[in-house]
Protein backbone atom coordinates (compact mmCIF):
# COMPACT_ATOMS: atom_id res chain seq x y z
CA UNK A 1 0.00 0.00 0.00
CA UNK A 2 1.58 3.28 -1.02
CA UNK A 3 0.72 6.71 0.38
CA UNK A 4 -0.10 7.83 -3.20
CA UNK A 5 -2.63 5.05 -3.71
CA UNK A 6 -6.03 6.18 -5.05
CA UNK A 7 -8.96 4.36 -3.47
CA UNK A 8 -12.24 4.05 -5.44
CA UNK A 9 -14.60 3.65 -2.47
CA UNK A 10 -17.37 1.08 -2.36
CA UNK A 11 -19.90 2.02 0.32
CA UNK A 12 -21.39 -0.66 2.56
CA UNK A 13 -24.58 0.04 4.49
CA UNK A 14 -25.75 -2.18 7.32
CA UNK A 15 -29.39 -1.48 8.07
CA UNK A 16 -30.71 -2.26 11.52
CA UNK A 17 -34.20 -2.55 13.00
CA UNK A 18 -36.69 -0.93 10.65
CA UNK A 19 -34.25 -0.52 7.73
CA UNK A 20 -34.48 -3.50 5.43
CA UNK A 21 -34.03 -1.83 2.02
CA UNK A 22 -32.46 1.29 0.48
CA UNK A 23 -34.38 3.68 -1.79
CA UNK A 24 -33.09 5.15 -5.00
CA UNK A 25 -30.40 2.61 -5.85
CA UNK A 26 -29.84 2.03 -9.57
CA UNK A 27 -28.77 -1.27 -11.17
CA UNK A 28 -30.18 -3.04 -8.06
CA UNK A 29 -29.49 -6.73 -7.62
CA UNK A 30 -29.79 -8.99 -4.55
CA UNK A 31 -26.94 -11.53 -4.60
CA UNK A 32 -25.94 -14.43 -2.35
CA UNK A 33 -22.37 -14.12 -1.02
CA UNK A 34 -20.96 -17.18 0.73
CA UNK A 35 -17.93 -16.64 2.97
CA UNK A 36 -15.42 -18.96 4.72
CA UNK A 37 -17.47 -18.23 7.90
CA UNK A 38 -20.78 -19.20 6.31
CA UNK A 39 -23.67 -17.14 5.02
CA UNK A 40 -24.44 -13.56 6.07
CA UNK A 41 -27.84 -12.53 7.47
CA UNK A 42 -29.36 -12.29 3.98
CA UNK A 43 -28.45 -11.72 0.37
CA UNK A 44 -26.62 -8.44 -0.24
CA UNK A 45 -28.22 -5.70 -2.32
CA UNK A 46 -25.74 -4.34 -4.88
CA UNK A 47 -26.40 -1.06 -6.69
CA UNK A 48 -25.21 2.43 -7.52
CA UNK A 49 -26.22 5.84 -6.23
CA UNK A 50 -25.07 8.78 -8.36
CA UNK A 51 -22.59 6.37 -9.92
CA UNK A 52 -21.09 5.30 -6.56
CA UNK A 53 -21.03 1.55 -5.96
CA UNK A 54 -22.92 0.50 -2.80
CA UNK A 55 -23.72 -2.75 -1.04
CA UNK A 56 -26.59 -2.99 1.47
CA UNK A 57 -27.12 -5.71 4.07
CA UNK A 58 -30.20 -5.88 6.31
CA UNK A 59 -28.45 -6.80 9.58
CA UNK A 60 -31.20 -9.05 10.92
CA UNK A 61 -32.29 -10.30 7.47
CA UNK A 62 -35.40 -9.19 5.59
CA UNK A 63 -38.38 -9.64 7.92
CA UNK A 64 -36.01 -9.53 10.95
CA UNK A 65 -35.72 -13.29 11.67
CA UNK A 66 -32.27 -13.22 13.39
CA UNK A 67 -31.75 -11.93 16.97
CA UNK A 68 -28.60 -9.95 17.90
CA UNK A 69 -26.81 -12.88 19.62
CA UNK A 70 -27.32 -15.20 16.64
CA UNK A 71 -26.12 -12.88 13.91
CA UNK A 72 -23.16 -14.29 12.01
CA UNK A 73 -21.13 -11.09 12.42
CA UNK A 74 -18.04 -12.64 10.82
CA UNK A 75 -19.95 -13.69 7.70
CA UNK A 76 -21.64 -10.27 7.48
CA UNK A 77 -18.33 -8.40 7.53
CA UNK A 78 -16.48 -10.96 5.38
CA UNK A 79 -19.27 -10.71 2.76
CA UNK A 80 -18.81 -6.93 2.70
CA UNK A 81 -15.03 -7.31 2.28
CA UNK A 82 -15.47 -9.94 -0.46
CA UNK A 83 -17.82 -7.49 -2.24
CA UNK A 84 -15.07 -4.86 -2.33
CA UNK A 85 -16.54 -2.63 0.39
CA UNK A 86 -14.07 -0.05 1.74
CA UNK A 87 -16.36 2.06 3.97
CA UNK A 88 -19.29 0.86 6.12
CA UNK A 89 -22.04 3.03 7.57
CA UNK A 90 -23.99 1.19 10.26
CA UNK A 91 -27.52 2.44 10.88
CA UNK A 92 -28.82 1.32 14.24
CA UNK A 93 -31.81 1.84 16.50
CA UNK A 94 -30.70 2.67 20.06
CA UNK A 95 -32.10 3.63 23.43
CA UNK A 96 -31.06 6.96 24.91
CA UNK A 97 -29.18 7.11 28.21
CA UNK A 98 -29.13 10.92 28.37
CA UNK A 99 -31.94 13.44 28.79
CA UNK A 100 -30.57 15.61 25.96
CA UNK A 101 -30.76 12.78 23.39
CA UNK A 102 -34.50 12.38 22.76
CA UNK A 103 -36.20 9.96 20.36
CA UNK A 104 -35.60 11.10 16.78
CA UNK A 105 -32.09 12.38 17.59
CA UNK A 106 -29.02 10.98 15.76
CA UNK A 107 -25.72 10.22 17.49
CA UNK A 108 -22.50 9.75 15.53
CA UNK A 109 -20.96 7.36 18.01
CA UNK A 110 -17.23 7.53 18.81
CA UNK A 111 -16.78 4.87 21.53
CA UNK A 112 -18.17 1.51 22.62
CA UNK A 113 -18.41 -0.40 25.86
CA UNK A 114 -18.86 -4.04 24.92
CA UNK A 115 -20.85 -6.09 27.44
CA UNK A 116 -21.63 -8.94 25.01
CA UNK A 117 -20.57 -12.43 26.09
CA UNK A 118 -21.72 -14.97 23.52
CA UNK A 119 -20.31 -13.82 20.23
CA UNK A 120 -17.42 -14.79 17.97
CA UNK A 121 -15.32 -11.63 18.21
CA UNK A 122 -12.40 -12.23 15.85
CA UNK A 123 -11.55 -13.68 12.45
CA UNK A 124 -8.19 -14.66 13.95
CA UNK A 125 -7.75 -17.78 16.09
CA UNK A 126 -5.30 -20.49 17.14
CA UNK A 127 -2.82 -20.72 14.27
CA UNK A 128 -2.84 -17.02 13.42
CA UNK A 129 -3.07 -14.49 16.24
CA UNK A 130 -3.64 -10.77 15.65
CA UNK A 131 -4.16 -7.88 18.08
CA UNK A 132 -5.54 -4.76 16.43
CA UNK A 133 -5.97 -1.37 18.13
CA UNK A 134 -9.53 -0.49 19.15
CA UNK A 135 -8.58 2.71 20.99
CA UNK A 136 -10.61 4.70 18.46
CA UNK A 137 -13.10 2.08 17.30
CA UNK A 138 -14.96 4.19 14.74
CA UNK A 139 -13.68 5.91 11.61
CA UNK A 140 -13.40 9.65 12.29
CA UNK A 141 -13.10 10.39 8.54
CA UNK A 142 -16.56 8.86 7.88
CA UNK A 143 -17.77 10.55 11.08
CA UNK A 144 -16.80 13.95 9.61
CA UNK A 145 -18.85 13.22 6.47
CA UNK A 146 -21.85 12.01 8.50
CA UNK A 147 -21.73 15.11 10.69
CA UNK A 148 -21.44 17.52 7.74
CA UNK A 149 -24.26 15.85 5.78
CA UNK A 150 -26.57 15.61 8.83
CA UNK A 151 -26.05 19.31 9.53
CA UNK A 152 -26.64 20.19 5.87
CA UNK A 153 -29.98 18.33 6.04
CA UNK A 154 -30.92 20.11 9.28
CA UNK A 155 -31.11 16.86 11.27
CA UNK A 156 -30.79 16.85 15.07
CA UNK A 157 -27.40 15.27 15.51
CA UNK A 158 -24.71 14.93 18.17
CA UNK A 159 -21.11 14.15 17.26
CA UNK A 160 -19.58 11.74 19.74
CA UNK A 161 -21.01 9.45 22.36
CA UNK A 162 -20.47 6.02 23.86
CA UNK A 163 -22.68 3.14 22.68
CA UNK A 164 -23.14 0.46 25.35
CA UNK A 165 -23.49 -2.90 23.59
CA UNK A 166 -25.59 -5.35 25.61
CA UNK A 167 -26.14 -9.01 24.82
CA UNK A 168 -29.95 -8.96 24.83
CA UNK A 169 -32.35 -10.02 23.50
CA UNK A 170 -34.19 -8.78 26.63
CA UNK A 171 -33.99 -5.05 27.25
CA UNK A 172 -32.05 -3.88 30.35
CA UNK A 173 -33.21 -3.84 33.93
CA UNK A 174 -33.58 -0.36 35.43
CA UNK A 175 -30.51 -0.98 37.64
CA UNK A 176 -28.43 -1.81 34.54
CA UNK A 177 -29.77 1.22 32.67
CA UNK A 178 -28.80 3.49 35.60
CA UNK A 179 -25.40 1.81 35.90
CA UNK A 180 -24.65 2.55 32.22
CA UNK A 181 -25.81 6.14 32.76
CA UNK A 182 -23.40 6.44 35.69
CA UNK A 183 -20.63 5.26 33.33
CA UNK A 184 -21.41 8.24 31.07
CA UNK A 185 -22.75 6.17 28.17
CA UNK A 186 -24.93 7.99 25.64
CA UNK A 187 -26.90 5.21 23.96
CA UNK A 188 -27.61 1.49 24.28
CA UNK A 189 -28.07 -1.19 21.63
CA UNK A 190 -27.34 -4.86 20.96
CA UNK A 191 -25.49 -5.10 17.66
CA UNK A 192 -22.55 -2.83 16.96
CA UNK A 193 -20.01 -5.07 18.67
CA UNK A 194 -18.37 -7.21 17.44
CA UNK A 195 -19.43 -5.74 14.09
CA UNK A 196 -17.06 -2.76 14.48
CA UNK A 197 -14.15 -4.93 15.70
CA UNK A 198 -14.52 -7.32 12.79
CA UNK A 199 -14.68 -4.45 10.29
CA UNK A 200 -11.42 -3.12 11.77
CA UNK A 201 -9.81 -6.58 11.49
CA UNK A 202 -10.90 -6.65 7.84
CA UNK A 203 -9.41 -3.15 7.38
CA UNK A 204 -12.80 -1.68 6.43
CA UNK A 205 -13.56 1.83 7.70
CA UNK A 206 -16.69 1.69 9.90
CA UNK A 207 -18.92 4.38 11.44
CA UNK A 208 -22.29 4.30 13.17
CA UNK A 209 -25.33 6.53 12.98
CA UNK A 210 -27.27 5.64 16.11
CA UNK A 211 -30.91 6.61 15.75
CA UNK A 212 -32.53 7.19 19.14
CA UNK A 213 -35.89 5.43 19.43
CA UNK A 214 -36.62 5.50 23.20
CA UNK A 215 -35.37 6.39 26.69
CA UNK A 216 -34.74 2.73 27.62
CA UNK A 217 -36.27 2.31 31.11
CA UNK A 218 -34.57 4.91 33.33
CA UNK A 219 -36.62 8.03 32.54
CA UNK A 220 -39.46 8.68 34.97
CA UNK A 221 -41.46 10.72 32.44
CA UNK A 222 -41.27 8.16 29.63
CA UNK A 223 -42.61 4.62 29.25
CA UNK A 224 -40.20 1.70 29.34
CA UNK A 225 -38.90 0.67 25.91
CA UNK A 226 -40.92 -1.87 23.90
CA UNK A 227 -40.50 -3.23 20.38
CA UNK A 228 -43.66 -1.34 19.48
CA UNK A 229 -42.16 2.00 20.56
CA UNK A 230 -38.89 1.29 18.69
CA UNK A 231 -40.70 0.35 15.47
CA UNK A 232 -43.05 3.33 15.71
CA UNK A 233 -40.20 5.81 16.17
CA UNK A 234 -38.18 4.18 13.39
CA UNK A 235 -41.16 4.47 11.03
CA UNK A 236 -41.31 8.17 11.85
CA UNK A 237 -37.56 8.52 11.29
CA UNK A 238 -36.83 6.26 8.33
CA UNK A 239 -37.27 9.22 5.95
CA UNK A 240 -34.44 11.03 7.82
CA UNK A 241 -32.21 7.97 7.68
CA UNK A 242 -32.90 7.51 3.96
CA UNK A 243 -32.20 11.20 3.21
CA UNK A 244 -28.92 10.94 5.12
CA UNK A 245 -27.89 7.80 3.24
CA UNK A 246 -28.66 9.50 -0.08
CA UNK A 247 -26.44 12.45 0.85
CA UNK A 248 -23.64 10.47 2.42
CA UNK A 249 -23.03 7.92 -0.34
CA UNK A 250 -21.99 10.43 -3.05
CA UNK A 251 -19.90 12.35 -0.49
CA UNK A 252 -18.07 9.23 0.69
CA UNK A 253 -17.79 7.70 -2.77
CA UNK A 254 -15.34 10.13 -4.34
CA UNK A 255 -11.89 8.75 -5.20
CA UNK A 256 -9.56 9.45 -2.26
CA UNK A 257 -6.20 8.59 -0.77
CA UNK A 258 -5.77 6.10 2.08
CA UNK A 259 -7.97 6.67 5.13
CA UNK A 260 -6.67 9.57 7.23
CA UNK A 261 -7.78 7.64 10.36
CA UNK A 262 -5.70 4.60 9.33
CA UNK A 263 -8.51 2.00 9.53
CA UNK A 264 -7.45 0.54 6.17
CA UNK A 265 -3.99 -0.29 7.61
CA UNK A 266 -5.20 -1.77 10.92
CA UNK A 267 -3.39 -5.07 10.40
CA UNK A 268 -0.04 -3.48 9.54
CA UNK A 269 1.55 -4.31 12.92
CA UNK A 270 -1.11 -6.63 14.38
CA UNK A 271 0.04 -10.16 13.47
CA UNK A 272 2.21 -11.93 16.04
CA UNK A 273 2.24 -15.60 14.97
CA UNK A 274 5.52 -16.60 13.28
CA UNK A 275 5.01 -17.74 9.66
CA UNK A 276 6.21 -21.28 10.55
CA UNK A 277 3.68 -21.50 13.41
CA UNK A 278 0.67 -20.55 11.30
CA UNK A 279 -2.13 -23.00 10.54
CA UNK A 280 -2.44 -23.30 6.73
CA UNK A 281 -6.20 -24.06 6.89
CA UNK A 282 -6.88 -20.89 8.93
CA UNK A 283 -4.58 -18.82 6.71
CA UNK A 284 -6.49 -19.90 3.64
CA UNK A 285 -9.78 -18.71 5.24
CA UNK A 286 -8.18 -15.46 6.38
CA UNK A 287 -6.94 -14.64 2.86
CA UNK A 288 -10.31 -13.06 1.97
CA UNK A 289 -10.16 -10.53 4.80
CA UNK A 290 -6.43 -10.15 5.49
CA UNK A 291 -4.83 -11.14 2.17
CA UNK A 292 -2.95 -7.83 2.09
CA UNK A 293 -0.75 -8.81 5.04
CA UNK A 294 -0.66 -12.63 4.74
C1 LIG B 1 -36.17 -3.85 17.83
S1 LIG B 1 -35.48 -3.15 19.28
C2 LIG B 1 -33.93 -3.96 19.63
C3 LIG B 1 -33.03 -4.17 18.45
O1 LIG B 1 -32.89 -2.93 17.73
C4 LIG B 1 -31.50 -2.64 17.59
O2 LIG B 1 -31.03 -3.30 16.43
P1 LIG B 1 -30.11 -2.63 15.31
O3 LIG B 1 -28.83 -2.18 15.97
O4 LIG B 1 -29.87 -3.72 14.31
O5 LIG B 1 -30.90 -1.46 14.76
C5 LIG B 1 -30.93 -3.23 18.87
O6 LIG B 1 -29.52 -3.34 18.81
C6 LIG B 1 -31.65 -4.54 18.96
O7 LIG B 1 -31.06 -5.53 18.14
N1 LIG C 1 -33.49 0.61 24.82
C1 LIG C 1 -32.84 -0.20 23.99
N2 LIG C 1 -32.00 -1.14 24.47
C2 LIG C 1 -31.33 -1.96 23.62
N3 LIG C 1 -31.45 -1.91 22.27
C3 LIG C 1 -32.27 -0.98 21.77
N4 LIG C 1 -32.58 -0.69 20.50
C4 LIG C 1 -33.46 0.32 20.52
N5 LIG C 1 -33.74 0.71 21.79
C5 LIG C 1 -33.00 -0.09 22.60
UniProtKB/TrEMBL annotation:
Positions that bind phosphate: 17, 59-60, 92-93, 191
PROSITE patterns assigned to the protein according to its UniProt record, in alphabetical order: PNP_MTAP_2 (PS01240)
Binding positions for substrate per the UniProt entry: 190, 214-216
Catalyzed reaction equations: S-methyl-5'-thioadenosine + phosphate = 5-(methylsulfanyl)-alpha-D-ribose 1-phosphate + adenine
The protein's enzyme class: transferase
Keyword Transferase belongs to the record: yes
Swiss-Prot/TrEMBL keywords: Glycosyltransferase, Purine salvage, Transferase
Tree of life domain: Bacteria
Gene Ontology terms describing biological process: L-methionine salvage from methylthioadenosine; purine ribonucleoside salvage
Entry keyword tRNA-binding: no
Pathways per UniProt: Amino-acid biosynthesis; L-methionine biosynthesis via salvage pathway; S-methyl-5-thio-alpha-D-ribose 1-phosphate from S-methyl-5'-thioadenosine (phosphorylase route): step 1/1
UniProt site positions, description: Important for substrate specificity: 172, 227
Pfam families the record matches: PNP_UDP_1
HAMAP family with a match to the protein in the record: MTAP
Function according to Swiss-Prot or TrEMBL: Catalyzes the reversible phosphorylation of S-methyl-5'-thioadenosine (MTA) to adenine and 5-methylthioribose-1-phosphate. Involved in the breakdown of MTA, a major by-product of polyamine biosynthesis. Responsible for the first step in the methionine salvage pathway after MTA has been generated from S-adenosylmethionine. Has broad substrate specificity with 6-aminopurine nucleosides as preferred substrates.
Family label: Belongs to the PNP/MTAP phosphorylase family. MTAP subfamily.
Protein name: S-methyl-5'-thioadenosine phosphorylase
Encoding gene (name): mtnP
Amino acid sequence: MSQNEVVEPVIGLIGGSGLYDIDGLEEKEWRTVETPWGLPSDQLLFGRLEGVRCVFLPRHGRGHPIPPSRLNYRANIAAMKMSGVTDIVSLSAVGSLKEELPPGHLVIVDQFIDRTIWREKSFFDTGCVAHISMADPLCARIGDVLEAQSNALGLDVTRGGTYLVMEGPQFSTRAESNLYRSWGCSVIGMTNMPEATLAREAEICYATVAMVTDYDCWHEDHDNVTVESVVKTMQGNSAKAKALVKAVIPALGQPRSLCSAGCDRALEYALITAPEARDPALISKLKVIAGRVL
